[in-house]
Structure formats: C-alpha cells, structure tokens
Amino acid sequence: MTNWTVRMIRDAVNAGKTSAEAVVSDALRRIDEKDGEIGAFLEVFREDAILAAREVDARVKGGEILPLAGVPIGVKDNMLVTGHIASAGSKMLAEYRATYTSTVVTRLQAAGAIIIGRTNMDEFAFGSSTESSAFQITKNPHDTTKVPGGTSGGSAAAVAAGMIPAALGSDTGGSIRQPASLCGVVGMKPTYGRVSRYGLIADGSSLDQIGPMATTVEDIAIILAVIEGRDAHDATSMSLDEPTVTNLSSPSMKGIRVGVPKEYFIDGMDTEVATRIKEAIETLRQGGAEIVDMSLPLAPYALPTFYIIQPAEASSNLARFDGMRYGTRAAGTLEESYRASRGEGLGPESKRRIMLGTFILSAGYYDAFYKKAVAVRAAMKMEFDAALKKVDVIVGPVSPVVAWGIGEKMDDPVAMYLADVFTVSANILGIPGISVPCGTAHGLPVGLQILANSFDDNKVLQVAAAFEALRQN
Amino acid sequence: MHIDINRIATLAKLQLTDDEKAMLERQLPAILDYVSKLQEVDTSKIDAKAYLTTAVNVFRKDVPTSTIDERNAVIAAFPASNGGALEVPGIFVD
User: What is the span of the domain harbouring residue B29?
Assistant: First the structure.
C-alpha cells in the first residue's frame, strides 16, 4: 500500500487480508526511510508498537471487528501514554514519564489502533511553526526548507510524508488546522467539549481541543467517532446527541447554505492563496451549495482577543512546572529553585507567553486586558450565533500564507502570531473547524477552512467530504 | 507602554537573563499595542463569563480510584522524595 488510508487498513486487517503486525512493520520501515530528513517524530515506540499489533491480531482472530484495527497513529508529544516520555516539546519535561494514559489514547487502543510514537511540537503548544520545540526542527515534506506549521507540525508532517496514515494533534488557536493546511493534509478541531482532554498537557484550558489529522475526510470521521464523547475525567467533555457520522460515501451540497464572511479576505493575504479559496467556493457552488455573502464585523478582533486569553490561561497552567513535582529541579532555596528551574527549563516563546499572561492578569491591568477580552469573546459568540441562523457553515482560508522558510519569523512574535488570524475564532467560540486541501499556491499546499456552530461537527464533515469528492471529479 | 520586567518576572517566578529581559522589554509592548485594538469594541452591554461551555455543576462521587501502583509511579516521578512523600526545599526559612 503506497497511498494508505485508515479505512483501507482497518478493513484489510478486520478481513484478515493483512495483519496489524505487517502494517506496523510497514509504518516503521516508512519512518526509518523518511524521518531522518523530516524530523516529525521525537520518539518511535518500536517494541511497544509491535507488541500492541500482535494483541490486535489476536483480537481480530478471536472474531472482534475493530473500528481502527491495526491503524498506526502518531500522538503529539503533549498526550500521555503510561511509561512513555511526554515532554510537550520542552526541556523542562525531557525526562518526564507519564504515570497514566490520556483518554484519547485509551480509546484509540481499545479500537485497535497502534500508538506508533510521539510527534514533535512547539514547546507547550506555543507557536505556529514547530520551531519552538526544544528538541528539533521539523521540515515540511513538500519543501524541506519550509516549516510544517504548528504547533502540531510533527503530526502533520508525518502524515503528509506518508509515514503514518493518521495522527492526533491538539488545537488551541489553530494548531491542528494550520499545519494540516501547510502540509496538505486534513485536520479537524472538534467542538470544545466533544473530545476529552484528560491526559493532555494543558495550554489554554478554555480553548484546547484534541482532534485527528489524516489524508481523507472519512478517516477524520472514523477517528473522531472513536475518541469523542463524555469522559468522567474531563468535566468539560459532553455526552453527544449526535455522534459523528462516519458514512460519508455520498455527501451532497444540495440545499447547504455556505457563508463567506468578507472579513476572511484581508489586506496582506497572499493573493494566490485567496484565489485558491475563491475557486474552492466556486466548486461548492457548482456542487449545489447556496453561497451567502456575509459579514462578521467582530472577526478582526479574534486574534487580539486570543493573544490575551491564551497567555493568561497558559501562564496559569504553566505555574505547575516549577521543578517540584515534574522534570528537573534547580538547586537553592524554594524561591531560587522555582525561578531557576523555570528559567533553565523553558524556552523563549514559553517565557514570552508566561510574562505576557502574568502582566495581563496583574493588578491594574486585569480589567483593561483580560476582562475586556472575555467581554469581546462573548460579543463574538452572539454575533456568530446570529450569523449561523442564516447559513449552515462558514468557509474561508485556514492560513493567509503558504508554508514559510525555516527561521523567517522567529524574531518577530507579532508576525508569527498573525499566521493564526483565521483559525483562532473557532477556539474563541468553541466551534468545530476543519482544514481540507484545496490546491497549491507557489507550489505549496493551501487549505480550505469550514466552520459550523457548536456540536455541528457532522455538518463540517459533510461539507468537507462533499468538497473533497467534487475536487476529485 | 512601559512594563516593569523585573516585577512581572518576580510574579511569574521566572529567572531571566539580561538578554532575555532586553528582548522582552522590546517585544511585550509591541504585542500589547497590537492586542489593545480591543478597546475599540463597545462591550458595555455584555454580560461576560470566562467559559462558553454549557456544562454546569459537573459532579462525581468522591471515591478513590487510583491503585497503589499509580501512587508509587507518581512518587517515582518526583525530582526528590522522602519516605513516600514529595520532598521540597524548606518553605519557612530565616
């Protein structure tokens, strides 16, 4: 299998046409062949993966039909797997071994998936290029002089390079969708509360969501159906009235109203990217969708809102990394040890976000920054809910630009933050969003973003699957 | 906007080098200038909450579910432990 999908693998393994062990051996061979150049994996769980594959083969022989039988899946380095290092891309946690397993990984394993290793990421999921990893630079498989996007850049690159058919990422401001767009794969951030975050190292707790990355929309749906739903270990996870529909074989755009906000085409956006998005919208129209021009006047305030709420929450979440219970501890009195452990263990972007968040939450500035951002967030939610009464989904670009050169934006944080301009809305609003490939600009992949209202994840998948099918015809 | 980097670093319990301080003195005002754009939005009529989730009062039974092995694994992961307890530098010192 050269062009393998989650569906092909699990059907073949369930039917006894191949074994999970053969699939995993193939994945390991692909990783050996390609990852030296790409740098997507921080660690490959070689022995564990083979042992797990043999267990899956025994279960299938025993008559079980598994939704992810033998599917090798990479997990971002911020999701815990018992006994394995989970470093969140940070030197602070370079040696930290998880003492329990995240709910998403438990559910994947129960469904027959094989956890093949942990993928590279920006430290604590702060960044847009995966260059803030304390360990290595991950390269874009379409052009190894370019970044893969971030923060789930390792997961995106591993799937794009064909090393694995699917991976998990986490998305706090676009960290699944943006690298999916830049690497030319499909990546989905589900509705806030759809997937448990138990065992995910927290970034911004009102924003974080785990989601799948794969090469087809159907594969995304298959994985989402496995990992979603209420989990007693995450109080924000919800039981679902409408579980994910995985049968997307004949999606239709007939009668679907597609909103196109004018604010999603901004000055400074790459014109070739804008052209690809407009062509994608035309494809949807030809497929039977009704295109509705609309306006979301508060959309331009999404990014400044995000860069207040995210650092505020992240600086609070990162207080636990003080050298006392995890990772490496510096010598000295308690106060000296706290300061030195954090000073030595954290990288530049983490320090920037901690300082920013601490400032924003400090006496005298809390009202002007944090409280204001929370109020704008609520206003944006009201505006969005009203807009979603007139349309089923909203479409636009994922990223204003294609993958940029490695090192190009590392000295200018605001320029780096602008890469998230179209993706942060979904996190601020808690709504689902997907990036689906829609062609290339300057020879590099471009992603179409599809958004819908909270818990309308099936609408997002339906439109994405229809678009994917229309493009192939 | 002026930011007292040393004061914020103390609040954050974060040791910074002189180079890092100089960089943050330059970059943080630029980021705060950018996010200050929010002051343009009229929010006088908004009743805001920090979370958008519709979940309220999520309770569970207060029963221990962890095993002794899990407890031991957590203790083993501490940078320093003493008799099954987390060991830290003295909290009350002269």
Answer: 5-39
Q: So what's the pLDDT on residue A1?
A: 42
Structure ipTM? 0.93
What per-residue string of b and e applies to A333-358 under the rule 16 or more CB within 10 Å gives b? ebeebbbbbbbebbbbbbbbbbbbbb
Helix (H, G, I), strand (E, B) or coil at A168: strand
Q: Which of residues 6-65 of B touch A (CB under 8 A)?
A: 8-9, 11-17, 20, 23-24, 27-28, 30-32, 34-41, 43, 46-55, 58, 60
Name the residue among B38, B40, B80 with its Cβ closest to that of A373: B38
**Cα-based distances in Å from A285 to A251, A255, A394, A473:** 14, 10, 13, 14
Domain-located, residue B19: yes
C-alpha to C-alpha distance for A373 and B3, rounded to whole angstroms: 20
Q: What is the pLDDT of residue B67?
A: 84
Residues of A in contact with B58 (CB under 8 A): 235-236
A207-222 per-position pLDDT tens digit: 999 999 999 999 999 9
CATH of the domain at B25: 1.10.20
Would B84 be classed as within a structural domain?
Answer: no
In a domain, B62, yes or no: no
The answer to whether the beta carbons of residues A139 and A41 sit under 8 Å apart is no
Amino acid in the structure at residue A368: A
> 3-class DSSP state for residue A95?
coil
Whether B63 is covered by a domain: the verdict is: no
Give the torsion sign (CA, A454, A457, A458, A460): positive
Which of A359, A369, A425 would you mutate first to test chain B, the one with the most B CBs within 10 A?
Answer: A359
Residues A305-327: tens digit of each pLDDT? 999 999 999 999 999 999 999 88
Strand (E) or helix (H) holding A436? strand A433-441
Disruptive mutation site among A240, A333, A376 for chain B (greatest number of B CBs within 10 Å) = A376
Dist. CA A233–CA A110, nearest whole Å: 17
The answer to whether the CB of A454 falls within 8 A of the CB of A270 is: no
DSSP A360: H
Residue listed under structure tokens 């962890």: B66
When pLDDT is averaged across residues A374-384 and rounded to a whole number, the result is 95
Q: What part of A 126-145 touches B (C-beta under 8 Å)? A: none
Is A356 in Cβ contact with B28 (below 8 Å)? yes
Please check the confidence at residue A3 and state whether its pLDDT lies above 70: no
Chain A positions in Cβ-Cβ contact with residue B12 (cut-off 8 Å): 315, 342, 354-355, 358
Tally of structural domains, chain B: 1
Q: What mean pLDDT comes out for the span A24-28?
A: 98
Please state whether the predicted TM-score (pTM) of the whole model is above 0.90.
yes
Residue A318 C-alpha from the chain's centroid: 20
**Six-digit token pair at A320?**
């636990």
